[in-house]
Records
---
Amino acid sequence: MTKTSERQKVLDVAPVGIPDESGRPTASNSSKLRLPDFRLGVVGFFVLVGVALVSLQLIVLIIAAFNGTSLFEGFEATLNNFSDVFLNPLFLPTMGNTLLLGAGSIVFMLLFAVPFAWLYARTALRGRSLLLVLVTLPVAMPGFIVAIGYTYWLNSANGLANLLARDWFGIQGPVFDVSDMFWMVFLQGTILSTPAFFMLVPSFEAMDGRLEEAAQVSGLSRLSTTLHISLPLISPAIIATAIFYFIAAIEMFDFAAVLGLPVQRFVLSTWLYALVQPASGAPQYGQAAALGMFAILIISVLMVLYLRAMRRAKRNILVTGKPAQQLRIPLSRKAQIGAWAFIGIYILLTIVLPVLSLLWSSVLSYFQAPSPAAFAAMNFDAYKQAFAEIAPILGNTLAVVVAVPTVAVLIAASTALVVTRTKSRAGKILDGGIMISVAIPAIVGTVSFLYVGLLIYKVVPIYTTIWILVLAIVARQIPWANRTISSSMVQIAPELEEAASTSGISKGRTFSSIVIPLVKPALMFSWFWVALLAMRDLTVPAMLSTDSTQLLSTTIFKFSEAGQRTLSSAIGVILLVAIAIVVTIFEIVVRRSDRQSK
Amino acid sequence: MNRAKFRMLRSALAVGVVAMLATACGGGGATSPAGSGKGGDVVAQAKSEGETASKNFTPALKDLIEKAKAEGTANLFVGSAKYTADQQAMLSQAVSAYFGIDLKVQTQSLGSWPDAYQQVSQSLKAGATPQIDLWVASMDFNSQLGQNGQAASVDWAALGAPADDILKVPGADSLYIQDSVRAIIYNTNLVKKEDVPKSWEDLYDPKYTGKIASVPLPTMWPAVGLATGQQQAVDMVTKLVKDQKMALLPSLSQVQQGVADGQYSIGIGLISEPLRGKGAPIASAHVKTGVIPAGAVPLKSAPHPAAATLLAYFLTQAKAGQAAAFQVLTWVKHTNEGTEAYEIANDAGVVVAPVDFQTTVVPEWVPKFSKALGLS
């Protein structure tokens, strides 16, 4: 829609406050202008809720880190939590493992994401749209399900891969051992490739292919062109993506918990978990908070580096923006086959293998290698049980999947409005605060909600309800939703609002009638994305859910922890189907919305 | 995100959905009815046993039944185990049939005993209503609840429980409900008959390197120390972790499942039921070990104290209750004939921890086991 037609639309739908011929607002309109702006009030309310959720985590974190006693028993200023953490013999190995996990994951992530983004955006690969579809698939797989799936393939005793290596190649010892650090790093890296791909594609698309063409015309080889022209151009975007997902990688709990905890290999996220849910003794919330503050410090530095890298990446793109469509690099037949083989390996690793093992595991009472006896022992009893287990928790899951994205998007849209549509200092502080909250480790942030839930229980008994889960997950998702919506809002020219303002239209109405409709796709995308993440999330629900507030994800985890593998696998399969349904609903809604807008 | 990219992404996701549905539904199909005749047997047994026993119910028990009837529900703490709706229904039907009332039993999985104790204690301190009515754990936890005034005071004798079944600690007298037998289990496909461990030292065999699993619970090991000596047990754990690369899984149930699945050859900390009963290739090694009695006590501010007390009485005093506890919860005492725990006690011998063992000996040794397990 053009700016002119948008302005006309504003004038059509919002005639209040239009000045009369003398230039003054009409009497009726001026009285309307003096009325409290309800829409602005709504925005303000959600900004306040967002600020409360984010600051709550930071405040409780700081108090707990410097508190020598339980928060329920008062406050005793101390630095002991920091010394206890830093002098703990686990500190250095844990930090070493975390660094290795973060850096290693990024290496494997880039190993897949960069070639995929390059193939998609810069080459004439046949079936590019299929590549996009295939690379998107792993989004539907919760990390802990992938990790559990791989334990059946790669465990050293009877992992299917080891059994195949023995049967096919006669190798007696275990070839693979899922408890090796390598697998934690590799699997986490491959899973992160999907979001990294989406982050890199726009940068690859925005690269000016004429520079490469000019280099080759000047006699440079394809390798030299890549090394001296293409890579320097794209490297800021790759670095920014690497830093961003390094932060995500060191915070991820799923792989570290399923693959690392059995062999007591701690990383930041699992050590935090062990501190707040220790095998014996009281939870060490103070130490967890101190460790959380240390993590925030490190992550904040990385965030600054990320923002700088992003600015550099944008500079490169802005200067040389040019459609790359006509400049796609042709691929030979061999290269095409090689590229598709590479894509196939990725899909095999991220989708086919974990789903196959999950399905296999769900139909056998105890795990067996495929054999005639195993096929004879297959049964679907677990699915009947699974549906019986799911029925009572469906309401909780539905509440979370609907309420979390709705509240998170309302908060994120409101804060994005303040940040992008006002030039106030408060807007900048709000933006900074939201960015910092990315650095709060999920486990530490969740502990804040646990504390507050218990502290206010007598006044507001939210602690034992599903709503504390909703608020805690919302708090985790605000920054991500805010980034998506902000980046969309920032593209809207201010002239539209200026015109509305000149016409006497209130700010609240301008927001709701002009800005919000223009960023509707971003709002819908954020809603869907947050709904998906809420459905998959395990970190927050694992710590806050009680038996009466179980979700699909926690039920799978609990049954798995309780040794009921068959049942947990069956529920895992059902969760995948449920995620697929959420995606389908989203698609239908968007299609309908598109048809209406046409 | 611009509109073109947005369209691009959602189209991709849509195709993804179809693929996921196709993949995820691939394993579906007809289901066979769950549940077993055993459940029906226990309920029938409870009904007939209850009809006879009701003639001898004490006045306190009769009064309790009325109160429990009014409450209608009992939330039972079951550690980190998780039971299906069918299993919970079987417990409900059995206890209801025994007392002739409608009582719904809900199992509550809060995690390991130490973890759950912290959650419960914290909630009670904050004034929150506990999620559980009936607490079941070893007596050190019950004792701590008693000291904090968080356990209900129940006159078990007035209900008809014999003195031997009452584990006495200040403020939290509990009914003896099950034993934690810290046994060794093995996969019968992976461990040959002649190689089945006959002593704890047999676990040092290099062929078990990387093939032993247990849990990161330092409170579990002093029970093994009852049979081997505490310092010897600490040395053993150190060797198992360092030399034998013993895996530490999140729960004992997972250890059992891991051994049944063949991911590990040996598991430490529990017996092989209930998976052995389901045909899994798993059995217990008959090695002398320690046994920790666990007691049941209602929480003081429990929403259903009478129902919780009645449930504890049923699971410990009625034969049908013990059968239900075994079949559904796999709770067993080493004195129950025909059980694996009984066989181990008879063949190899067990050392039963005295009631004050966990309040006197365990706290002294837990830090050493914790270090040996690499937890501190």
---
Amino acid sequence: MSQTFDIKRFGKVLAYDIRRLSPRNFRSGERTGNMGINIISFAFIPVVISLVNILMGEQAAGVPVWVRWSMLLFMAVIMACLVPEVHYNAVNQKKGGSYYAMLPASKLEKYLSMLLMTLVVCPLLTFCGAFVVDTLITFLPLHVNEGYLWQTDSLLGHFGINPYEGLPAIYSVRAYMVAIFGYILFAMAFVFGNTLFRKSKTALTMLCLFGIGFVVSVVSVLVTAWLVADLGIEIDLADRVMNVATGSIYGWVNNIGLGMQVLFITLLVYYSWRRIKRMGY
Amino acid sequence: MIEIKNLDFSYKKTPVFSNINLSFPQGAIYGLLGENGVGKTTLLKIICGLQRPVNGSSTVDGMTSHDRLPEMLQRIVFLPDEVQLPDNATPQKYVDELSPFYPTFSQGTFLHLMQELEVEPDRKFREMSFGQQKKSLIAASLSLGTDYVLLDEPTNGLDIPSKAQFRSILSKIADEGKTIIISTHQVKDVENLIDPIVILSHNAVLLDASVQKITEKLFFEYGGAERPDALYSELMPAGYMNVVPNQSGEESQLNIEALFNAVLRNKERIKELFA
């Protein structure tokens, strides 16, 4: 049996991590709460949306499908940001961390289970829970929702991530890739933050992301100003789509953006893995 | 076998161990003694891979501890002094979570130990006293069936009858060929149980010897007058208890507290005696 990765053992670690979602496993010494309770609470957010809609007296129109989809996806992303601190807070804690570190599974199996729980399992459970709750609300004769979540033709258009309609399929694929990699990058920042900070991990990671976002925005504005003013390059946002198709500067910027996402994801995966591998308790 | 070779360890700039060598062959109950802060818990953590040595190595059956390979982790269990327990869980649920990872786990042993230690396996941890929680964890750890059991201050919180039960359980387990390492301040609780004895000091191992070797080299004299050549003397109700070098080869009853004090006060002399 491999000492680095064994699928059966990995299954045991994942099952152990999933079982820990149960509120029964909450440890009173932990300040971070319980992930299972978070998932259940988030799954009931469609009820809150419906109540707000009723209170605003707008139930006649009902909440549009795309708005609810946006909420569900947003919740899933928020969940991915919370999982590292809430469910894996102990990874760099002296007291609680040793218990998990001593489980007879490899460091890689534990790390992969953490990634799977953060990126897929918990967000998916939240999404599915909220989907079911939303469907039940729509089914009830309250008329607070416009229709069932699956009754939609063009979600991507609403989300503004598919400006490539009418172009070859590769551009739609790229739109999906940008969205998925963006999500992974965002969630991985919190996985790394969880190994880096000892307290208030989510809040500190968020602050760092705001800081980085601010710096990137300032640099982007300066670069754009330099392109327009000094080099005289004409930026025509309306023509963006065709420029992508013809491989103009915008297409390149898009490709560089995608490449940067992949690069940063790789760096975050590498450094969070390195920190977990070398962690002492 | 657990082997520690040329081990250096420090917390940032505070050195804890400097070039120490130790080995723990299988089938004994080792007592790890030392003053506060000499690194008893740290040594246990290094052995089970929770801390990485600066230099040197710690291996368990030839596997480097800090790699924490699954095979090594299946052979070793570490029970720290304090454990964060899930409030609503019971000892039974606790072992149910752990048991899939340990092929040697025995539910029968767990229930037997829980019965012997008089704790209910289906009672919630939050409804238990600290001592009962500790007993549950001891039963859970021992039922995993690992070859090596590392216990940090295991008798903390145990009442007097439980300490006796604890000693009896450990003796039986050691008879099965398991290796147990106990780190403790409460030497009276483990007297007549631990053998060999390891005494740690700042940066070094002061003593690593079996009880037989200790009583060969040192004589524990009870009830006499204070002796000027004593490595350690203590006034007791029946007179002085002296620890002196054993020059006659006579056998005596080991007193761990007195041994500990004698070793700490005569570090160089003890090294010479046991060299």
